[in-house]
Amino acid sequence: MGKRIDLNTDMGESFGTYTFGADEKLLKHITTANIACGFHAGDPNVMDQTVQLAKKYNVAIGAHPGFPDVAGFGRRMIEFTPDEIYRLVAYQIGGLQAFCRIHGVKMQHVKPHGALYNLAARNREVADAIAKAVKDIDPSFILFGPAGSELLEAGKRSGLQVAAEVFADRTYQPDGSLTSRFEKDSMIEDVDIAAAQIEQIIKNGVVKAVNGELVAVEADTVCVHGDGPHAVGFVKKLREMLDNAGVEVVALSKQESPE
After folding, report:
1. By C-alpha distance, which of 150, 114, 99, 115 is closest to 129?
2. Of 150, 195, 155, which is closest to residue 177 (Cα–Cα)?
3. Residue 39 belongs to a domain with what CATH number?
C-alpha cells in the first residue's frame, strides 16, 4: 500500500479506586494515546500516571476532553453554549498539558470524546468553539475528528493541522457517520472483521456501511477503543495486518510533511 497511518487508543479512563482498560498493554502496540482529562473519566492521579506511561513507550499524547458526565461516561448529550464548550475544552486541555510539561513531553493533539465528539462532527458552532480553544492554547496541536466532519472543517478554518479518524471497532451509517452506541450492532467484536474494515479503508478509501453500501472515507489515524474487552487483541491484529500490507504505523507528529 505504501502508506503511513497512525494508530490511536482512548485511555487514562480509570478514576479513584476504579480501573478501566489495559493501558500499559495497549501502549506497547499503538503510536498515539488520547488521555481522558477528568470530566468523563480519569482524575489527576490517573492523568499523571498515563502521561508517564506514554512517555515510557514513546507514544504521542493528546487530550481527550469530554462532557462532565462520569456516570454516563461522556456519552450522553448535555446542553452547553458554544462559549461554555470553549471553556470546557480549554480547561481540560490545560490540565493534561500541565502534566506533559511536568514530565518533559510535548502534547501532540486534541480529540473530543463521546457525545462531544459526535456533536462537533455535525454542529458548526460547537466545532468552531473547540477549534478556537485548541488554537488559542497551542496552534501546533493537531485536531482529530471524523473525515468530512464540521469538526475538521472548523480546524482547517482555524489554520490547525487536522487528522481524519476512522474506527476499527465501530460500524458506519450510509452518510459516513458512526452508528450510535445506543443502537444495535454499533460495535464490531470480531477482530478479523475489524482488521478487514481498516484494510479496505486504507486500500480503497471506502467503508461498508450497515446497509452494505460502500461509503468514501479518508483516514489519517485509526482508533481502537481502549475500554473494549478485546482492545489488546484488536490492536495486535491491526498491527499485524498493517505490517503485512507494508503500511508504516507512526504518530502524526513524527510523519514527514509532504513536499
Report:
1. 150
2. 150
3. 3.20.20.370
- CA triplet 190, 165, 198: central angle to 5 degrees? 35
Distance from C-alpha of 161 to C-alpha of 198, rounded to nearest angstrom? 23
User: Distance between CA atoms of 162 and 144, rounded to whole angstroms?
Assistant: 6
**Nearest CA-CA partner of 249 in 1, 54, 7:** 7
Give the cell for residue 194: 475489524
Question: Which three-class secondary structure state does DSSP give residue 212?
Answer: coil
Model confidence over 47-84: pLDDT tens digits? Answer: 999 999 999 999 999 999 999 999 898 889 999 999 99
- Predicted TM-score (pTM) above 0.85: yes
Domain count, the chain: 1
Which amino acid would we find at residue 100? Answer: C
Asked whether residue 43 is assigned to any structural domain, the reply reads: yes
